[in-house]
Amino acid sequence: MEISSEEILETIKMVEMQNLDIRAVTMSINLLDCSHPNLKVLKNKIKQKIIKYSKNLVKVCKELESIYGIPIVNERIAVTPISLIAAGCNAKNYVPIAKVLDETAKDAGVDFIGGFSALVEKGFTESDLKLIGSIPEALAGTDFVCSAVNVATTKIGINMDAIAKMGKVIKETARLTAKNDSIGCTKLGVFANLPPDVPFMPGAIHGVGQPDCVINIGVSGPGVVKSVLEKMKDASLGEIAEAIKKTSFKITRMGELIGREVAEKLKVEFGCLDLSLSPTTKVGDSIARILELIGLEVCGTHGTTAALALLTDAVKKGGAMASSSIGGYSGAFIPVCEDIGMIEAVRKKALSLDKLEAMTSVCAVGLDMVVVPGDTPAETISAIIADEMAIGMVNNKTTGVRIIPAFGKKVGEKVKFAGHQGLLGEGIVMPVNKYGSKKFIQRGGRIPAPLRSLTN
Known about the structure:
Elements: H1 5-18, E1 21-29, H2 39-54, H3 57-68, E2 72-79, H4 82-85, H5 95-108, E3 112-114, E4 118-119, H6 126-140, E5 145-153, E6 157-159, H7 160-176, E7 188-192, E8 213-220, H8 222-229, H9 237-266, E9 269-274, H10 287-294, H11 304-322, H12 340-347, H13 353-359, E10 367-373, H14 378-395, E11 399-406, E12 414-416, E13 426-428, H15 438-442, E14 446-448
Parallel strand pairs: 1-2, 2-3, 3-5, 4-5, 5-7, 8-9, 10-11
Antiparallel strand pairs: 1-8, 5-6, 6-14, 7-11, 12-13
């Protein structure tokens, strides 16, 4: 990929003044050949395979960061879902596997490792049940491990039995990590249509059908988009969309350059570039602030979903023109606790769970990093998940739920998640609907796939 001197100078400006960065370089590793009936052997094989590929990951990223002057916020690893790898193992539960993943991530120097995961959209294997049952203890006893459970797809429908289980798993994870504002739940996501090549946590897995090892890039630039829109006070919405599209093109070009350089230096394949705009708690790095620049008084008011649809579409169009390797989620993230503008909108009571749910129909993923009262019933959490899975299934898009029932906390109280370079941020406990959904969740079974699934 050839980059002109003008593009280089413009990139330097975006880095220095507009918070442009590579949000994640994620090495995705196939562990299928590590399967073994003996737990000790399995753990050793997992560790050896991961270290074989990842030992120089952080070093190479730091080198490229220095050469190009572009910050790389996180280095991460994703592996094949552990429920597949451990299916033939003699382990009673998979907590020891989570701990070896954690140790290996620490040895490699990365920030997160994803793949303590299961794909259960149509039902459970014995291994899936072991993994799901192990999640609370695994996330409470590790620092770097992330877990994703896919419970729905457009082709298959929604596994309501899995959703019922995940409500209880989330509650138990919150209880076991109560001393740190239930931080374990920040590393757990429940998904519909989970892609096989996500660089962002907690949804990152090494999906079936990929090469043995690939590099997936998550690039981000809310600050760059915000800077552009600040100069367009009297522009029409069409002009704003065009400006976002052009900006997304530039950001994507830079991201793919870094991704391919990392892959080449590590002698592995370049996988995909996820061009999602991903906010942080830094001032100027907020999706909410972008939406407000488009014309909203406060994010969450009427018109927010339409403004977010404009932003997401323009980001995708610009990115698609800049790269033929678009993957992952690719859109705009709305993680409440990681976006200073979203946090402020919740504080002003402009942004509710119901409005967030509407917004997820047009953004990159779903209800992300939302904090609810610790005494929220497991069935209510499951019902919130079910609503999001229905949006994903019917609209043939990825949706996810990363919800934190903050143990011991009530509506309006503040939580703050320590560690991970402050990436997980802080939040305010949001109210949930006071009416229950217990009977709906207890019915179980499967919600059938929509008619649009019949595409063969």
